[in-house]
Amino acid sequence: MPKEPLISIVDDDESIRAAVEGLMRSLGYAAKSFASAQDFMASRHLHRTACLIADVNMPGMTGPDLHRHLLASNIGIPTILITAYPDDGVRDRALRAGVICYLSKPFDEAALLGCVQSALRKSKPG
């Protein structure tokens, strides 16, 4: 049986990580959460991730920094950024850099699901 696509969640806020991971699992996706970008990059799940949901503002490496680092490393994981502090400049730069979606917390579950579906379509080869 082929492995289902993995949704990885990177957020320093434990309650957000748990809520998004639980939502993804309730929708039938495999999901794994990480407290930092460094934890995610060091994990065995990095290359299996089909969609990344990352917080914009995290200590150490931010969500946009993580996205840029992955691209520079030739790891093109479709990325969704989430933030409690929306900033038009950050959003515009992120979307120009290829981020799939930029959502403000609290976000609508349907909006997140639409972004995840778009990301998974983009992650499929071909």
Brief descriptors of the model:
alpha/beta, Rossmann fold, 5 strands, globular
Commentary on this structure:
The protein has one domain: Response regulator (Rossmann fold, 3-Layer(aba) Sandwich). The protein contains five helices and five strands. A five-stranded parallel sheet has the order 2-1-3-4-5, with helices on both faces. The model has no long low-confidence stretch (mean pLDDT 94).
Question: How is the secondary structure organized here?
Answer:
Blueprint (H helix, E strand, L loop, with lengths): L5 E5 L3 H13 L3 E5 L2 H5 L7 E7 L7 H10 L6 E5 L4 H9 L4 E4 L4 H15 L3
Parallel strand pairs: 1-2, 1-3, 3-4, 4-5
Rg over CA atoms: 13 Å
Please, how many helices? 5
- The mean pLDDT is 94
Number of structural units classed as domains: 1
How would you sum up the global shape?
globular
CATH class reads: Alpha Beta
The H-and-E topology, N to C, reads as: EHEHEHEHEH
